[in-house]
Amino acid sequence: MDMLVVGAGEMGRWVARTADRPVAVTDVDAAVAERTATALDGVRAVPADTAETFDIVCLAVPISVVEEAVSRYADNAERAMCDVSGVMRAPVAAMRAALPERERVSLHPLFAAANAPGNVAVVADAAGPATDALRADLRAAGNNPFETTVEEHDTAMETVQAGAHTAVLAYALAAADVREEFATPVSETLDDLVTTVTDGTPRVYREIQETFEGADRVADAARRVADAEGDAFDDLYREASE
User: Fold this and answer.
1) 215-227 vs 164-174: helix axis angle to the nearest 10?
2) How confident is the model over 49-85, as pLDDT tens digits?
3) How far is CA 210 from the centre of its chain?
4) Distance between CA 240 and CA 217 in Å, rounded?
5) In 3-state terms, what secondary structure has residue 157?
6) C-beta separation of 34 from 60 below 8 A
């Protein structure tokens, strides 16, 4: 059972490494696909406009182009299509429209590829043997695929991605340059989180912020804390602890 991975960036390379099957990769930048194929044993590169068909096509593309990619590569998918774009609503709807008779699964690895394995959110819109086998590959590599719904996933991302990233970046932007000796356990933890977030790619984080709500709620909460005095602060502290 072979697979085409569309997008040879960090997450596409992770998919290609994790899938226990013959894999081909493609990318809008042919040189990126070639480098990925060279770096990974048993992986080959194919042109972005390939007419070759595969049992599974997996889209490892940015959120902003995933719907276009579904349409472009639907004919290359003989049995199934999946995506690892990080959003559920748009790709699930696009795959349902473009591949009504084929298996369709949306996957969201909740980690950077360098931190794998980890939890993988799964919306199985139309599961079957091909996508079940792919999920088995994920489990065999130490990941934890867990089922969710489009609504639950996209709502959760407002907190665990858009909101969390906003809070971390806001701390980084607001922090003054102080001597290392002044570090506290809390500030050290926050500094580590800043390093984690800013060690990525700006475009990835930008697309998350543009796709999911959550940033404004963090900003509003920060203003509540900044404005709170006396008992009002105590109330907010207890609210946060709950």
Assistant:
1) 50
2) 999 999 999 999 999 999 999 999 999 999 999 999 9
3) 14
4) 14
5) helix
6) no
